[in-house]
């Protein structure tokens, strides 16, 4: 009994000392400085020492809400050069937390001009400007991409001016403010200066969107296809033949129909019905991967994004017996494909 009382007295003493200490300015300052250091320097170096083709999901959800996830964004790193496919809402916040080196970003490529694929272009502009971009931000996109970028430039023109006046030309020169919009041509390689890299756009069907693309990226023998948003019309399967990785959007008709039955307003019921006719179902995504002899299928822009293990099991239930090598992406899912190897490494940026 005496030992127990001594132990309790010790715990209480430690608690009181801690309570008093936390009110000390010097203790608060030390704790805060440690916290700031962790915030600024906790991320591991972004670029690999080895030569790889790397894919990072910087936005994994569709417009349907999903806590903790950004809208569509796929980063591809070939060697030390970076290309970003789509910039959905919240994606640049993720990239900032990953401590992306913006000077290594060679271009942004937009699959199509739905809002959940372009919303963070202004933030990408700002972050790359701050980090020393040397020219207007290069953005490839479908017909009309120049209207999108000009609209952003018009809307943000006061912001450009305020930041330039505040920080000066040496920091944020107006000569490189804005975008360099370039229209994508079907089946015509995207020009780039990365040795060994090919980026090939191909048309997909996302009607009534009149211009929508997927992309095949090849780098020194490793390959990835990014579907964008599309129905299964054969295009993705054609370009995915024998690729290492297929990054495909997918919808669960089963779960969406369950949501329709519980929709609290008629507008939601209407939207949940309409979205079913211009997306690839999860079963079709599996069939594409199987028939194209894809090594691994990575699902992003999932509709709806599973929020727990049970929902994930139901979402992927249609893949049973069709295709087994699949992963549901989260924000920060990273796939590393070393050059000169068939290895596919899947991990997570914390």
From TrEMBL:
Residues 70-268 form the Metallo-beta-lactamase domain. Coiled coil: none annotated. InterPro entries: AtsA-like_MBL-fold, Metallo-B-lactamas, RibonucZ/Hydroxyglut_hydro. It comes from the Bacteria. GO terms for molecular function: 3'-tRNA processing endoribonuclease activity. The keyword Manganese does not apply. Keywords: Hydrolase. The keyword Hydrolase applies. This is MBL fold metallo-hydrolase. It comes from SAR86 cluster bacterium.
